[in-house]
Design a protein that fits this description.
By secondary structure, this protein is an all-alpha fold. Helices cover 84% and strands 0% of the residues. The relative contact order is 0.16.
Length: 143
């Protein structure tokens, strides 16, 4: 049986991928005016991202540290560009997600829409690039 240290990165990637699917689903649902279902899906996306964050911080801060990128050549600047934008936006997205969630739950619809126009694409980018980073770090030949 694999240890937590061995499977934590995969768990994180699955959580990020799940969050991305939930975000797109939530966006489709709200465009179809399925407000209650949208609410439940977005709460699930928030919960999934929160579980990811706890797992990520636990794995990196307390257990494993960092993994070094092994790619060479043209992929190296691509990887570090993705990593840099992902990291900056991952920090920036937290207050936006909290504002979006709070305003949505309070049914402050106009204020919710205003912040969610920014939150959705940034959160989706962070979730998708989290999976890309995992793939580049752990699933390609140089890993």
């Amino acid at each position: 049986m694999a240890s937590y240290i061995e499977i934590a990165p995969t768990i994180n990637a699955v959580l990020n991928g799940t969050a991305a699917v939930l975000l797109v689903s939530g966006r489709v649902l709200i465009s179809r005016r399925k407000i209650e279902t949208h609410k439940r899906v977005m709460i699930a996306a928030f919960t999934t991202s929160s579980v990811f964050l706890v797992n990520y911080l636990t794995y990196h801060a307390l257990i494993h540290g960092s993994k070094h990128f092994g790619g060479q050549g043209w992929i190296r600047p691509v990887y570090f560009t993705i990593l840099l934008t992902h990291t900056i936006l991952a920090a920036a997205i937290v207050p936006l997600v909290l504002m979006s969630l709070s305003r949505g739950l309070k049914r402050q619809d106009a204020r919710h829409r205003a912040v969610s126009r920014w939150t959705f694409p940034l959160w989706l980018y962070v979730s998708v690039t989290g999976v890309v980073i995992y793939l580049l770090l752990y699933q390609v030949a140089w890993a």
